[in-house]
Specification:
Layout lengths: L12 E4 L2 E4 L28 H11 L14 E5 L2 E4 L4 E4 L2 H4 L8 H11 L12 H11 L8 E5 L2 H16 L4 E4 L29 E4 L33 H16 L7 E4 L15 H11 L3 E5 L24 E4 L10 E5 L1 H6 L13 H16 L2 H22 L3 E7 L2 E6 L11 H13 L2 E2 L1 E3 L5 E4 L7 H24 L1
Length: 502
């Protein structure tokens, strides 16, 4: 287990949490300001309201439930591929992609051109008429999914897609109960809040009837874990005695899943939903064979298996186009959103002909889902992923970034875990690697603010907001990674200097 804190000068020893370190100056091994890669894009001059007036409007006219990042919230003005520009023209490397939504790059020229062309032709007809783009897009999208997942229902958001998937599962099976993982996020609608299992999203109103949660098979923070559990270039610092092809942690978590089936739900269930890698909870990965075994157990109970690909889909995991493929499973229902439209509001539910037919027993309608404009945008995104080689880029650049971040984990005791696959990455911050207790929120926030001040935007996640979420547009380069890792290294170093000075 790596416990080194990096180079320290000799001096008086004291404790921070449970981490011992010297009360002397931290010996700097990196520059105090990471150098941002060049960009030849020149943003337009900002011409809207002053920052202070924007803040006043926000306070008076925007719902307070829509919270902002950072002590001084960013006022962003323009985007170009992996870059964002604020109202003063300052450039930022976007490592969060509008919460894992900008898949091919901000204002990608191919997507922008296709959108502009369709805007001049036809925006909206609704689904009572045919228009070419919905048929063309349905054919293109479903060609990327394995049999028998060939029928698509287009919606407008991930919550809406998961809501519909729940409805379909219950209609098709004639059962009601659905299981999800603790730590899962599947939406904020009253229906999907039953599946979402993160306390911050729970409101004091009735929700979740017929929804049960099961233990999250988290091989870093959970009760069982090891050094070979997950499908990632970087494993946990936890040790195990498992031989090749054996995972005792997986066996223990499957027993917990069986316990849920035997105690919390009826003998016949409607389904089980899981993200291939948990998103909002901080890129949490399961043991390699867990989903395969869980799917079998669910189907034995008459349930369908739903893969929530809202964050993992469209090549982000690198090795495969869909996250479920990394687990060697074929779900019965797949939900898609976020990266599907590169920021355009669209989503989809893809399923089998038999399951889709259950929804046709009565009328089910969506005014905006599958509009001419949305379908053209979706098709252009698929073309950009293929033409720009973004799945391979996610694999190459994502693996490079994971390995570079792992070096920081080995150097800093407060970096507890680096995990993920492709460009779906989490960095979990702890007081120390032995206890795995979350680093206090105020300390994490200062590291986060320092990264922003150096021009790197990253997300936050986890039950305690203790995990940095790195899920950038899939067009980022290794030079961008070098800059981001150097900035993060500097922020970690500054944190240790502040702690040493106390």
């Amino acid at each position: 287990m790596a416990t080194g804190l990096g180079p320290l000068l000799c001096g008086h020893s004291r404790r921070l949490g449970s981490v011992a370190f010297r009360q002397q100056k931290w010996k700097s091994s990196v520059s105090t300001q990471a150098k941002m890669p060049p960009c030849d894009f020149v943003p337009e001059k900002y011409k809207s309201y002053p920052y202070e007036h924007m803040q006043k409007i926000r306070e008076q006219n925007i719902s307070p439930s829509l919270r902002l990042y950072y002590k001084k919230p960013l006022l962003l003005h323009q985007g170009h591929m992996q870059w964002l520009f604020d109202y003063e023209g300052k450039r930022y490397l976007d490592l969060f992609a509008g919460i894992v939504t900008v898949s091919v790059g901000h204002c990608h020229p191919k997507v922008t051109m296709a959108t502009q062309k369709q805007l001049a032709r036809l925006w909206h007809t609704t689904n009572i008429y045919m228009h070419p783009s919905i048929q063309e897009y349905a054919e293109k999208l479903t060609s990327l999914l394995p049999d028998p997942l060939k029928v698509v229902y287009l919606t407008n958001s991930g919550s809406e897609a998961n809501d519909l998937a729940m409805f379909m599962a219950r209609l098709y099976t004639r059962n009601f109960d659905i299981i999800s993982f603790r730590g899962a996020y599947h939406g904020g609608s009253p229906y999907t809040l039953g599946l979402t299992s993160i306390g911050l999203y729970k409101h004091g109103v009735a929700n979740g009837f017929g929804c049960s949660t099961t233990m999250l098979p988290d091989v870093f923070r959970g009760p069982w874990g090891g050094s070979h559990c997950r499908d990632s270039p970087v494993q946990t610092v936890r040790k195990c005695s498992c031989s090749e092809g054996v995972c005792q942690a997986n066996d223990q978590y499957i027993e917990q899943f069986k316990d849920t089936l035997n105690t919390s739900v009826p003998k016949a269930i409607a389904g089980f939903i899981a993200e291939p890698i948990q998103g909002v909870n901080g890129a949490v990965q399961y043991p390699r064979n867990f989903l395969k075994e869980a799917y079998q157990l669910v189907r034995e109970r008459g349930g369908v298996c739903i893969s929530d690909e809202v964050q993992t889909g469209f090549g982000r995991t690198g090795s495969h186009f869909w996250g479920f493929q990394t687990h060697d499973v074929v779900p019965d229902i797949v939900t898609l959103a976020k990266g599907i439209g590169n920021g355009f509001p669209m989503a989809a539910v893809v399923t089998t002909k038999e399951i889709a037919s259950s929804l046709a027993q009565n009328l089910h309608f969506n005014t905006f889902g599958g509009s001419p404009l949305a379908c053209v945008v979706g098709a252009a995104v698929l073309d950009a992923i293929e033409e720009d080689g973004l799945q391979k880029n996610s694999d190459d650049v994502g693996t490079y970034m994971l390995l570079e971040l792992a070096k920081l984990r080995d150097k800093f005791e407060i970096v507890g875990d680096v995990r993920g696959k492709g460009l779906m990455i989490g960095v979990e911050m702890v007081t120390d690697k032995d206890s795995r207790q979350p680093l206090p929120a105020e300390e994490i926030s200062q590291i986060w603010e320092d990264c922003k001040d150096m021009g790197v935007l990253i997300g936050r996640g986890g039950l305690y907001s203790q995990t940095f979420r790195i899920k950038p547009p899939m067009c980022i380069t290794k030079k961008d990674v070098d800059f981001a890792v150097e900035a993060f290294h500097t922020a970690l170093q500054r944190h240790m200097e502040r702690a040493a000075a106390k």
